[in-house]
Amino acid sequence: KAGVTQTPRYLIKTRGQQVTLSCSPISGHRSVSWYQQTPGQGLQFLFEYFSETQRNKGNFPGRFSGRQFSNSRSEMNVSTLELGDSALYLCASSLVVGYEQYFGPGTRLTVT
Amino acid sequence: DAKTTQPTSMDCAEGRAANLPCNHSTISGNEYVYWYRQIHSQGPQYIIHGLKNNETNEMASLIITEDRKSSTLILPHATLRDTAVYYCIVRVAFANAGKSTFGDGTTLTVKP
Question: What pLDDT was estimated at residue B99?
Answer without folding.
Answer: 67
